[in-house]
Design a protein that fits this description.
The chain has 17 helices and 16 strands. Helix content is 29%, strand content 16%. This is F-box domain-containing protein.
């Protein structure tokens, strides 16, 4: 992001948006696939400092890109915002962008603050063949960029290859050449973690992430029987990083690898804001999860700065949360299971809830709704349902919507047998919530492929507040959310509704990528 501003006070967002709308129209209708910046006379009259302020407050990378493409001067002004956070999400993108940067054909490296590199990354939602890339070449290229001083402003780096970088000098190079680097992370593949890795030699970290790669079943059989997190990792985090703000230790539900994270309760990080523990163990060999409940609850109570918290759902992890009412006063986002949210303090101030560890039955959903009613600030909900054929789908949806009437964003997955789409549309229309963003994943009948554009149009017509929709479907049920066998995915935006009485038109967003959009990707919240 832009590090300095020529003005001293922050301008109210409502005023900024109204100014931009007045001069250039609603940001939502800007073209997302424009090949070059278009000159927009209205935007040219808006002071550039206001443009920057708007861009910094926009949450969607596409909106920032759209704003930057309104004119060449705006694009040049927003370069620091566009390229502050870069996520190379595929092997092709890794090769193209890294070659461009190494060859010196772009000076955008001076804007890079956060960099995520994902060679050989497989997106399970788009099962297209991935052309392999030599990860050793990627590592050597990053070392060249770092030693040449082109990554000197980097503050965050995350590696997401098929395995930890085999050339361990990448970490020592980044540590030596990137003086501002305080957030790092890596994934691990089937190989054991090297306890003497340079990855564990950083000091005074603000963020750390370690994730276990989801592996094919035949690879899992070769995993170490009891993989342990090395003492060097805990020494780095607990002893040498007292100002830690973000911590992520994550293992996929589909992996047989289970890390023992009991030592996290020994940490005392007054500035800890984000904590994510994937499907890890808090019991260890011969211990009961009940034995760890008190230390873990004490750990949470001693970290009042926590804003985001994600807990696993394994039986080896404490099931209940019992905390003093004054605990976690700043908690705003939570991910866990229904038993976790029931015992959370500060319910009226939580804004985001994610319940996707396990599918929820009709009875469980009813219990969850009783807790959601107390979350008066809730604006975003992600939930996974599994209802049998005898369930009253309309009643379940209506109860859910009535329990969180301030909801603006909903991501709902239904992995049971097919049900009538009209039940969902009617329940949503009859509720009082005013959704702006909706993601719906469901099972369809194999004999009748749905018209996603038609469904999106129906949803938009019945819900005037909706402007962004993502519809996904499969012909079979699934066991894990990260392995859904998608048949088709459709992403839509609603065209400007300013004309009264005109029919609602939805536009399908394509995945095209222009040369101006190549580096414009946001960093994951938990990295």
């Amino acid at each position: 992001m832009v590090s300095s501003k020529p003005w001293s006070t922050s301008i109210p967002m409502s005023l900024l948006v109204s100014l931009i709308k007045h001069h250039a129209g609603d940001l939502r209708v800007f073209s997302l696939n424009t090949q070059r910046p278009q000159v927009t006379p209205g935007v040219a009259r808006v002071p550039l400092e206001i443009i920057i302020e708007v861009a910094e407050k926009l949450s969607s990378p596409e909106d920032i890109l759209s704003l930057s493409l309104t004119s060449s001067s705006v694009y040049a002004t927003l370069l620091p915002v566009l390229y502050a956070s870069v996520d190379l999400r595929s092997s092709r993108m890794c090769r193209n962008v890294i070659e461009m940067l190494v060859d010196g054909r772009s000076d955008v490296t001076r804007y890079l603050r956060k960099l995520v590199v994902r060679p050989n990354h497989v997106d399970r939602r788009t099962p297209q063949p991935v052309k392999p890339i030599d990860e050793a070449w990627v590592v050597q290229s990053l070392i060249i960029l770092a030693t040449s001083g082109r990554l000197s402003r980097l503050t965050t780096f995350f590696w997401d290859g098929s395995e930890v970088p085999q050339d361990d000098s990448l970490w020592s190079t980044l540590r030596a050449c990137c003086p501002n680097l305080r957030s790092i992370g890596s994934n691990v593949g089937p190989k054991s973690i090297n306890p003497d890795s340079e990855l564990f030699r950083f000091n005074d970290l603000a963020g750390f992430s370690l994730t276990a790669k989801t592996l094919p079943d035949e690879w899992d059989t070769f995993l170490p029987p009891e993989p342990e997190l090395p003492d060097q990792l805990w020494q780095m985090l607990i002893v040498r990083s007292p100002r830690l703000e973000q911590l992520r230790i994550d293992v996929s539900q589909r992996s047989r690898r289970v890390w023992d994270t009991r030592r996290v309760v020994d940490g005392r990080w007054p500035q800890l804001r984000d904590l994510e523990l994937g499907d890890c163990s808090m019991a260890g060999n011969g211990s009961s999860r009940i034995y760890m409940e008190t230390p873990f609850m004490r750990f949470l109570a001693l970290h009042p700065a926590l804003e985001r918290l994600r807990l696993p759902s394994l039986s080896s992890f404490p099931r209940a949360i019992i905390l003093p009412p004054s605990s976690l006063p700043n908690l705003r986002e939570f991910c866990g299971n229904p038993a976790h949210i029931k015992g959370l303090p500060n319910l009226p101030h939580i804004r985001t809830v994610t319940l996707v560890h396990q599918p929820l039955s009709e009875k469980t959903v009813s219990l969850v709704c009783g807790t959601l009613k107390h979350m008066r600030s809730l604006t975003s909900l992600s939930i996974w349902l599994h209802l049998d054929a005898q369930s009253d789908h309309y009643a379940v949806f209506r109860n859910l919507f009535d329990s969180c009437r301030g909801l603006k964003s909903l991501d709902i997955a239904c992995s049971e047998a097919p049900w009538e789409m009209q039940e969902f549309i009617s329940a949503l229309r009859g509720s009082r919530i005013e959704l702006t963003n909706l993601t719906l994943t469901r099972v369809e009948r194999a004999a009748s492929e749905p018209d996603l554009r038609k469904i999106a149009t129906q949803l938009a017509a019945k819900n005037p507040s909706l402007w962004k929709l993502s519809l996904r479907y499969s012909f079979t049920t699934w066991v894990f959310l990260d392995s859904i066998p998608y048949v088709k995915v459709g992403n839509f935006v609603v065209k400007d509704r300013s004309k009264q009485g005109s029919p609602v038109v939805v536009l399908e967003k394509t995945a095209k990528c222009s040369r101006y959009r190549r580096l414009s990707f946001q960093l994951s919240r938990w990295i």
